[in-house]
Amino acid sequence: MPDPIPSPSYEGTRSSMRKATGDREPAGQRTGDGRQRRGLSPGMVVRIELKKDQGTGKLTEGKVREILTSSSFHPHGIKVRLEDGSVGRVQQVG
Length: 94
Hints:
Low-confidence stretches: 13-31
Distance between the termini: 58 Å
CATH class: Mainly Beta
Number of strands: 4
Radius of gyration: 17 Å
Largest sheet: 4 strands, antiparallel, barrel
Shape: elongated
Mean pLDDT: 80
C-alpha cells in the first residue's frame, strides 16, 4: 500500500489554525473588535469592559490614552487606559 499523502502543516498563526480546523470566528469577532493591538491607537474612541463589570455586559466608552497589553493579540480584548483613567479590555472599536 502506498504511503499516505502528508497533510499540509498549518502551525503558527491563528488564521492558519482556522484553515487546519475549518473553524470560523463568529461575526463581530474579527479584526477591529479590540482583540488585535494593531487596530488600536491613542486617541481612538472605544468601548471597554471594566473588571468590575465583567459578565454584566456593561461597557464604558472613552478615548484611549495608553495601550497596556504588549502582545499583538489577546482573546478577551486588548487592555487599555482611557483618558479618564479607567482601565479595561476593548470590546468595541469606534
